[in-house]
Amino acid sequence: MSFYSPKTEKGNVGYSEVSMELAILQAEDMDRLGCTNCDYCTNCINCTNCDCCTNCTDWHTEAKNILSIHGLYWPVGISNTHMKIGCQFYHHEAWKNFSEAEISEMHPKALEFWNKNKDLLLGFCNLKASEVES
Fold it and tell me: In b/e form, how buried is each residue of 97-108, taking b as 16+ CB within 10 angstroms?
């Protein structure tokens, strides 16, 4: 049997196959760790709009010289070597080489998001890669 907690004030939903109490505890844990609008995350910190993540962290809020983009379905952070979309964090080259099947496996809405924003985001990756960090 599957148990889903009610949404918390921060929009988080917990999940458990054991009990409703554990689902509620998971949702409360996501709230306590700063997550917002997340479903079934475990050990995440400050993530937003994530689904079934583990050990995710909103790294771009604490790093220096990161291009942050908000207002899309997921927040995006781009350094000179890596890009993070929501909770997916990979080197620029990995993002460039992902197949549509690999992107689709990340989240049900990932491929639509990627097809709509890929050229713009990879352009920003190229811009950041060309910068020399001081």
Answer: ebeeeebeebbe
Beta bridge partners of 67: 78
4 near 13, Cβ under 8 Å? yes
Q: What is the pLDDT of residues 20-56, one digit of tens each?
A: 998 898 899 888 888 888 887 776 777 777 777 666 6
Range scoring the smallest mean pLDDT among 11-15, 16-20, 102-106: 16-20
How many CB atoms are closer than 10 A to CB 35? 27
CB atoms within 10 A of CB 76: 23
Please state whether 117 falls in left (phi above 0), alpha (psi between -120 and 50) or beta.
alpha
